[in-house]
Amino acid sequence: MDIKTKQEKIKDIYNDFIIRAQPFTVNAVCKTGCSFCCIHFGHVDIITLEGFIILEWMETLSKSDQIDLCKKLVKNMKKKKKRSVARCPFLSKDNTCRIYDIRPFSCRQLYSLETCTAKGPVVHRKSVEMAKMTVKKLQHLDATGYSGHLSYILHLISTPDFKKLYQTGGFDPAKIMSFGKRYGIVINRRVSDKGYTK
C-alpha cells in the first residue's frame, strides 16, 4: 500500500473512532479557542504518516510562514526535551488551530466533560481505552514508520535521507537509533501488534 492510500485509510480510522466515541463526547465542553490541551496537557504524538500530511500542508505556505513555523518547531523540540510547558507550534495567536482539518489523532481524541483545570480534562475511561486501540491501528497501518512527539517526528521526516527511505518503503531503525533514543521515538512495527485487533 502506497503512502497516499495509507493516508486515506487514516481518515477511515479517525472516523471510526469519532463514531464509536460519540456517546461519550456528545456532552464535551470543548470550544474553539479553549486550547488548554494544546498548551498544558496534550501530548501531541503523531505517526510518520500524519507527519507527512502536516509537512505537505506546510509546503503550501509562503516561505516566510514556513521559516516562522520551523523556528516554532525547533523551540518546541527544545522545550519538550526539557519537559517544559510547550505551546503547540500550530496554535495561532487567537488560540485556534492552524491545522484543525488535518490535526493528528492525538488531538482528535481529546475532549473534556468539564472546563479544564490543572488536573487536565475529564474523560470517560471507555473512551480512553478506545483511543489506545485506535493508536494501535494507526501504528499497524504505519508499520514502516515511527511514533513520537509532533516536533520530533516532523524533524525526522524533514531529513532528506530518512524521507527518501520512508517514501520508497524502506525500513532501517538503526539509521535513526541515536535520534530515536534521545527523543523517545517508538518503532511502530514493534508496538502495533501488541493487543492489536482489527
Describe the fold and architecture:
This protein has ten helices and three strands, in the order H-H-E-H-H-H-H-E-H-H-H-E-H. The chain is mainly alpha-helical and 198 residues long. It has one domain. The chain has a three-stranded antiparallel β-sheet. Helix 1 (3-25) packs antiparallel against helix 6, helix 3 (48-58) crosses helix 7 (150-157) and helix 4 crosses helix 7. The chain is globular and about 45 Å long. 27% of the residues are buried.
Mean pLDDT: 92
Q: List SSEs in N-to-C order.
A: HHEHHHHEHHHEH
Q: Work out the count of structural domains.
A: 1
Largest sheet: 3 strands, antiparallel
Uncertain regions spanning at least 5 consecutive residues: none
Instruction: Give the end-to-end Cα distance, rounded to a whole number of Å.
Output: 17 Å
Task: Give the DSSP E fraction (strand runs of 2 or more residues).
Answer: under 5%
Structural class: mainly alpha
Count up the helices.
10
Helix content, binned percent: 40-55%
Produce a short descriptive summary:
The protein has helices at residues 3-25, 36-41, 48-58, 63-81, 105-108, 125-141, 150-157, 160-167, 177-183, 188-191, and strands spanning 45-47, 146-149, 186-187. It is mostly helical and 198 residues long.
